[in-house]
Amino acid sequence: MNLNFTAEEEAFRSEVLDFLRERLPQRIASKVRNGQHLTRDDMAQWHAILNEKGWLANHWPKEYGGPGWSAVQKFIFENECAIAAAPRIVPFGVNMLGPVLIKYGNEAQKRHWLPRILDGSDWWCQGYSEPGAGSDLAAVRTAAVRQGDHYVVNGQKTWTTLGHYANMIFCLVRTATDVRKQEGISFLLIDMNTPGIEVRPIITLDGEHEVNEVFFTDVRVPVDNLVGEENKGWTYAKYLLTYERTNIAGVGFSVAALARLKLAAQKVTRNGKPLAQDPQFAARLAKVEIDLENMKTTNLRVIAAVAGGGVPGAESSMLKIRGTEIRQEISSLLRRAMGPYAAPFIEEALQEGFDGEPVGPEEAASAAALYFNNRKLSIFGGSNEIQKNIISKMILGL
Length: 398
Ligand SMILES: Cc1cc2nc3c(=O)[nH]c(=O)nc-3n(C[C@H](O)[C@H](O)[C@H](O)COP(=O)(O)OP(=O)(O)OC[C@H]3O[C@@H](n4cnc5c(N)ncnc54)[C@H](O)[C@@H]3O)c2cc1C
What we know:
There is one protein chain. The chain is an alpha+beta fold. It folds into three domains: about 5-90, Acyl-CoA dehydrogenase/oxidase, N-terminal domain (Butyryl-Coa Dehydrogenase, subunit A, domain 1, Orthogonal Bundle); about 125-230, Beta Barrel (Butyryl-CoA Dehydrogenase, subunit A, domain 2); about 250-395, Butyryl-CoA Dehydrogenase, subunit A, domain 3, CATH 1.20.140.10. Helix content is about 45%, strand content about 15%. The protein has twelve helices and ten strands. It has helices at about 5-25, 25-35, 40-55, 70-85, 90-105, 105-120, 235-250, 250-265, 280-305, 315-340, 365-375, 385-395, and strands at about 125, 145, 150-160, 170-175, 185-190, 195-205, 210-220, 225, 270, 275. A four-stranded mixed sheet has the order 1-4-5-8. Strand 6 and strand 7 (about 210-220) form a beta hairpin. It binds flavin-adenine dinucleotide (FAD). The site of flavin-adenine dinucleotide has 19 residues, from strand 1 and helix 12.
């Protein structure tokens, strides 16, 4: 197994770096770097720039508009983007629904929906979780009852990320109740503008409106919007989740955040010395850096295995756990480094163009908000406890 990049892969990295230098809008990168809120337009602008280059749907096969990259190229691209403070690609259409449609959608669905994901005509959100169906996802109760050439949908989804921006939602719905719960689920595409849909905001601890509740009352959905076969949705749902989990590891985000943390720890002083020289702080900093280096190697090991024809299994759960723990530890250390300066929650500091009086180091303004926001990492995409269950089943056979 060779964990070094080849000359071609290094040339590819240079190409990515040139592209980021030329095309990543610095206004947006600065917001990402400072932990400020991105607007819908910011995200859509970055998607459009990537799409123009043919790099938006980097997991898709060439025939559907993907660049035809290897696993290593995707790894390089995602890491360099994160290090350059590019916004993350909004995953719901490109990274989640796209691969499901490519594998399980019919020709008409592929022809209609895939180009619209690429050119931004549709903004998708994910309607999996419900109150009472999170970790136990197969317990979804939102019901879709067939009436002629429509399904009539009633129920509720929750934690729907960016649902307030979306015009489309892909949902797990219950189409049968007299079978094992996994066997009565279907995968339905629903237009958010259909009468009977209501989106209500959930405001999180950091004051952000990122997630929502979505209510369905007698919502009529054409049967053409069913993906694959009725009652086979659980298979498609699980396929989508492995894509979601591998993306959450976020090595590049941790590399960028660690660099920022190290700078901050040099600037901030404790007892007249840079915080980076405080033995306790330095020990935690060193530990997280070592953990990150280890995870990078593990990630490359998984990629090398995939490049050699293997399929990631429990490894995507392993990467999800370690990746999110590392990201949380880095944001926790940044908050600690800022000390009392991280305490005031200055909501305006999270908006573009904040010109208030800086209180303490510039990193302080967003440190607490980032810390709180990153609590979500070990919960979504299947909580870390659930990933541990998966690992124990697949590797230890428990
Ligand atoms: C910020 C954010 C964004 C999200 N975005 C979306 C989205 O866009 N679309 C969507 O569909 N969902 C989304 N989710 C939902 C997410 O997938 C669920 O929160 C997650 O699956 C956990 O489900 P739950 O919240 O119902 O918690 P529960 O399932 O009630 O779990 C509560 C706690 O119990 C633990 N637990 C549960 N079962 C077990 C078990 N068998 N063994 C050990 N421990 C267990 C869990 O690990 C957790 O700590 C989002 C969540 C968050 C926080």
